[in-house]
Design a protein that fits this description.
The chain is α+β, with helices and mostly antiparallel strands. The protein has 6 helices and 3 strands, in the order H-H-H-E-H-H-E-E-H. Helix content is 54%, strand content 13%.
């Protein structure tokens, strides 16, 4: 039976299909959020985000991040670059060290998406 030939009475519609309780994610929002979720789908990057966000003021020195993993410095730098390129973290060079800061607006958008899923 095709969708066009299906005809339900108002009572059948309510019994069969629950109404939306909020606006679903738009196509443009999904296209904006998908790269963020893709970047966070890697366990190392997810832990890096957690470490950065857990530091005082949501900012961490790369020296602190390198020590938390049994990975080479170039590998950690690659993961940090991916997070930076999708807009989840900002970076600032201070002397010989680079400091990373979680972008609160990006995290707030993800939190709103995940927080309303329940």
């Amino acid at each position: 039976m095709s969708k066009s030939s299906l005809s339900l009475t108002p009572v059948e519609t309510v019994a069969c299909c629950s109404p939306l309780s909020r606006e679903p994610l738009s196509r443009s929002d999904a296209e904006r959020i998908a790269p963020l979720l893709k970047a966070l789908a890697d366990p190392v990057r997810l832990r890096l985000m957690s470490l950065i966000a857990s530091h005082q003021g949501g900012e961490a020195c790369v020296c602190d991040l390198n020590e938390a993993f049994d990975l080479s410095q170039p590998t950690i730098s690659h993961h940090l670059k991916v997070l930076h390129e999708v807009g989840l973290i900002d970076r600032e060079k201070r002397g010989v060290w680079v400091y990373y800061r979680a972008r609160s607006e990006a995290l707030a958008g993800l939190a709103a998406l995940v927080g309303t899923a329940a």
